[in-house]
Amino acid sequence: MMVQDPLLCDLPIQVTLEEVNSGVFLELVGIAIRVLILTGSDLFTAIVVVQSATVLDLKKAIRRYMELKQQREGGVKHISWKYVWRTFHLVFNGEKVEDDKRKLKDYGIKNRDEVTFLKKLRRK
């Protein structure tokens, strides 16, 4: 039934309730936004968060997305997110998106904006 629904047809076969809710929230204007995350391999990943989301909410959404993706594809069993956030910045329009308590809209991030991972420079 979901495969025939034009709003939900792009969801994966082993869909979770959270993914269904995200799809519905995207279709309801003003509830959620889709942030495109650019990974190192020039691939964009669409992450859905509510409009009032903070940077920490975005990080958690990225984590949930990657964990679901790894389960479905049978890839790496464990990703050290402490290492990821210690090694990489999220960057939007050349500005580091660092403060976990700030809202995404404070950085100017809107629907379909691109956020990239940037490797942190080591200090000597």
UniProtKB/TrEMBL annotation:
A single Gene Ontology CC annotation of this entry is: U12-type spliceosomal complex
Q: Which UniProt keywords apply?
A: Membrane, Transmembrane, Transmembrane helix
Where does the chain cross the membrane? 31-56
Residues forming the Ubiquitin-like domain are 31-124
Q: Does the keyword Phosphoprotein apply?
A: no
Give a GO biological-process term.
mRNA splicing, via spliceosome
Q: Known PROSITE patterns for this protein?
A: UBIQUITIN_2 (PS50053)
Stated name of the protein: Small nuclear ribonucleoprotein 25
Tell me the organism: Cyprinus carpio (Common carp)
